[in-house]
C-alpha cells in the first residue's frame, strides 16, 4: 500500500515537471542580421547608406549591407573578402531612408522605389573588377522601419536567376555623401 502511494506521488511529480517544462518551448525567435540566397547566407555586420543626390524632392540612396570581412571606404571602394548586397532606393526623405515599403521598379525614380540591386556572396577585393559572381536583383520588396535612429530592414527579393534573396537587418546605418 505504501508503495502505491509513493508511485502515485512520483507520477504526479513527474507529470507536473513535464507540463511546466513545456512553457519554456514558447520562446521568441530572434532574427539574425543576415542576407540569404537559397541555402547560402552571410551575416550582416555593417550597413552603409550613400546619398546620391536629391531631385524634385526624391533622394537616391545606395544601401550596402556587408559581411564581417568587407569594409566600405567613403569613396565606395569595397575592400576585403565576403558577402555584400547593394540596393538603390529612392526615398522622399533627404536625411535617410523613409519608413515604408520599397517595391522594385527599374523604370522610374519616384519615392519608395527599389530601382536596382545586386549581390556577391564571395567577393574578393584582391581579384579586382575581373571577378565573377555578381548577380542582379530582378523583383521584390524592401521594407524599412525606423525607431530612435535604429533601422529595421526586411528584404524579400528575386534575382535574375530566379533565386529568392531574403534578409533582415536591425541596427545603425552609417550615412555618407
From TrEMBL:
Per UniProt, the keywords (alphabetical) are: Signal
Signal peptide residues are: 1-20
Can you say what this protein is called? Uncharacterized protein
Amino acid at each position: 500500500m505504501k508503495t502505491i502511494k509513493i508511485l502515485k506521488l512520483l507520477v504526479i511529480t513527474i507529470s507536473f515537471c513535464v507540463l511546466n517544462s513545456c512553457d519554456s518551448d514558447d520562446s521568441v525567435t530572434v532574427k539574425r542580421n543576415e542576407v540569404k540566397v537559397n541555402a547560402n547566407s552571410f551575416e550582416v555586420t555593417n550597413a552603409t547608406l550613400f546619398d546620391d543626390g536629391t531631385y524634385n524632392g526624391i533622394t537616391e540612396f545606395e544601401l550596402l549591407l556587408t559581411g564581417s570581412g568587407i569594409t566600405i571606404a567613403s569613396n565606395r571602394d569595397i575592400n576585403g573578402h565576403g558577402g555584400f548586397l547593394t540596393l538603390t532606393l529612392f526615398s522622399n526623405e533627404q536625411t535617410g531612408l523613409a519608413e515604408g515599403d520599397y517595391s522594385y521598379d527599374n523604370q522610374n525614380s519616384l519615392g519608395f522605389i527599389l530601382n536596382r540591386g545586386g549581390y556577391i556572396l564571395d567577393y574578393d577585393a584582391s581579384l579586382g573588377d575581373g571577378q565573377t559572381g555578381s548577380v542582379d536583383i530582378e523583383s521584390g520588396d524592401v521594407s524599412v522601419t525606423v525607431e530612435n535612429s535604429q533601422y529595421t530592414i526586411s528584404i524579400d527579393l528575386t534575382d535574375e536567376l530566379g533565386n529568392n534573396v531574403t534578409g533582415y537587418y536591425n541596427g545603425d546605418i552609417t550615412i555618407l555623401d
